[in-house]
Amino acid sequence: MYSGFSASIPPGQENLNELPFSYRVERRKRVTRRLHLALDDDGELLAVVPRHVGDAAVHRLLVKNVATVERYLRRAQARRPPPLEWHDGSMHLFTGRTLPLQLRAQRGRARETEFTDQHIAVYSHQLDEDSVRRTLRAGYLAQARRLFAQRVDTIRAGADWTRGLKIELKLQRMKRTWGTCSSKGVIRLNTHLVKAPPQCLDYVIAHELCHLQVMNHGPEFYRLQDALYPGWQDVRTHLREHGRRYTRD
Ligand SMILES: [Zn+2]
């Protein structure tokens, strides 16, 4: 029926629902806060919410907090590290240090990397950006293999509940998990940790070792973790704030 009256939203009001930025909604299983802001790898805003929060609710939350979101965006974008490049002299991370890449042409030998306190060297007959990128990835993995098992052995020496236990260590490149632990004694560590300061690796190992004794995050778990790795809170904060720098490639 046409009554002659418009049923649409009064002029001006529809603008209330428009936001001065674009965003993408990402639902994650283990998010406790209603809304968590993040930037994706392209610098776009991610509204991270628990599984059960619908699109309309996300939008309402963003509208309600538009000033906070804009402040977050300004700060996050200013803090964003420059994009990674794989040229001679490009800066890359290793054990918390930012080191220049040195590309060294080499005939007839397999691709190799060398990690020192001063630089990361890539020896190869292929020094185009894509090849260097792949060689560097393989180099990080090799370094992780060398370092991680050693650190697990060192840290488990202080965890008497692991005495006599068979721990299987697996390494995996992961986007947002630093480590996992199964009741069968499999500890999986994110190879990207090789780029972070050494205490990050140690903290993640200690955390997973504690899970071999207590599978949840209850008070008993934190008692163990406090004893095995005092000061872990600072490391966790560091990983929360800077973690994205380590998982970029
Ligand atoms: Zn845990």
TrEMBL record:
InterPro entries per record: UTP_pyrophosphatase-like (IPR053136), YgjP-like_metallopeptidase (IPR002725)
Stretches assigned to the YgjP-like metallopeptidase domain: 33-242
Segments forming a coiled coil: none
CDD domains: M48_yhfN_like
Entry-linked Pfam families: YgjP-like (PF01863)
Listed name of the protein: M48 family metallopeptidase
